[in-house]
Design goal:
The chain contains 15 helices and 11 strands. By secondary structure, it is an alpha/beta fold. It folds into 3 domains: about 60 residues, no CATH class; about 70 residues, no CATH class; about 160 residues, Rossmann fold. The chain binds S-adenosylmethionine (SAM).
């Protein structure tokens, strides 16, 4: 990066050019400051530094050099690509030093996606950070709840157009001879996600029943259940207010409603529903016992609950114990990881395309992981068996 006198006298203005495509114009506090930079050029051996293509200037700029060195040696805290790191740090250091009251930038200063940091290194970095975040969220349930609330609200804001109305990993039958599930044309793009709904909600007899979906997300699943499985009513509840608003505007059907509420404090009277289902949402909750207690309470006696989500085998053992203690009997307990993995593999290109279209570059790494794209932490955990995708059907015991 080269600090250059523009040649013409522009009051309070210095232009800092990178030899290639980045250009930064810095407005100094005042003319005296600008003059002082220019006057001190000899003290700083600028000519030599310019020849070496290193940043030059006084205080703040030297601190940029240190920052770049620190960044390179200690690892970046943000996913900046190398080509932009110096420029971004330089601008930041101006702010930090409080030496300029105005900074104008030209060129592309947006942070790069992790992938472009330096290929594999960037991806590894994101995975390491996500792993650390995952450990922290497992230890601190309030952190998990808080993060997920922010994340799902953000996701809803990114997609006001309704490109994404389902957010699960889907279900693909492994038997190539298996009959293809009939589906309305409007549902075809979301076939795999809806097949998971069909497997989970469809394992309950919902004909003429009052049904609750906890964690209804962007609402495509509840809409499908209402249209395809014949319940009298379907209520979707979700604690992302943005998602609920989206659903209320996007999915309008008689007998279908979306309500804002928390799985761990359901906003319904005791015994309001005949059946409840919950798909790929409970891993976000703070306390499974509280959630199961809430489901138990809103179910009518003998009512059924169908649940699907991922857990480690050890977590599953604990969960089965809690389910029984809360007052459910387990009617079905099946591992569906292979079918979910097969679906994830088939959704790769669609998910990648959606991320490209909707998500700002700096968040690509997080969203690729969320979508379970190949090579991410989520994908690897299913592949290694560290995480299992389970489906359980339970009945509220009649005492
Ligand atoms: C991965 S999405 C799945 C959504 C939907 N079941 C589907 O398959 O498309 C998880 C959803 O759970 C919701 N969620 C997370 N924690 C919740 C809570 N405590 N109460 C209600 N909803 C919650 C999120 O807002 C998000 O919409």
């Amino acid at each position: 990066m080269i600090l250059a006198n523009t040649g013409q006298y522009e009051p309070n203005c210095l232009v800092i050019n990178e030899s290639h495509h980045i250009r930064v114009t810095v407005l100094c506090y005042d003319r005296a400051q600008r003059d002082s930079f220019i006057k001190n050029q000899s003290r700083m051996a600028y000519a030599q530094l310019i020849a070496m293509k290193l940043p030059i200037g006084s205080g703040a700029v030297e601190s940029t050099v240190r920052r770049v060195v620190n960044l390179r040696l200690k690892g970046p805290s943000l996913f900046w690509c190398r080509a932009r790191a110096e420029a971004i740090l330089l601008v930041r250091s101006y702010y930090k030093a409080g030496r300029w009251n105005n900074v104008e930038t030209y060129g592309d200063f947006t942070p790069c996606s992790a992938g472009s940091l330096t290929g594999k290194m960037g991806t590894r970095l994101v995975q390491t950070m996500l792993k650390a975040a995952d450990v922290a969220m497992n230890r601190i349930p309030t952190l998990r709840r808080g993060f997920n609330r922010v994340f799902y609200n953000y996701l809803s804001r990114l997609d006001r157009g309704g490109n994404v109305i389902l957010m699960n990993y889907g279900y693909a039958d492994l038997d190539p001879q298996a009959a293809v599930m009939p589906m309305e044309a409007q549902d075809e793009p979301d076939r795999l996600c809806l097949q998971l709904y069909h497997r989970v909600a469809g394992s309950l007899d919902l004909q003429g029943k009052d049904v609750l979906e906890v964690g209804s997300g962007r609402g495509g699943g509840a809409s499908y259940v209402k249209r395809a499985l014949g319940p009298a009513s379907v209520t979707g509840v979700d604690y992302s207010i943005e998602a609920v608003r989206f659903c209320q505007e996007h999915h309008k059907l008689d007998g279908l409603r979306y309500v804002h509420g928390d799985a761990e404090d359901l906003p319904f009277e005791e015994g309001s529903f005949d059946a409840v289902y919950n798909i790929e949402s409970s891993h976000c909750y703070g306390n499974m016992r509280t959630f199961l207690g809430e489901v138990h309470q809103v179910l009518r006696p003998g009512g059924q609950f169908s649940w699907a989500d991922f857990r480690t085998p050890v977590e599953m053992e604990g969960l089965r114990g809690i389910i029984r203690e809360v007052g459910f009997e387990i009617l079905r307990d099946e591992l569906i990881t292979p079918q979910v993995k097969a679906s994830m593999a088939r959704q790769q290109s669609r998910n990648q395309a959606l991320i490209q279209k909707l998500v700002p570059r700096f968040a690509h790494g997080v969203f690729r992981n969320f979508a379970g794209v190949e090579g991410t932490l989520v994908y690897d955990r299913f592949a290694s068996g560290e995480r299992q995708y389970m489906h359980l059907v339970m009945r509220k015991r009649v005492s």
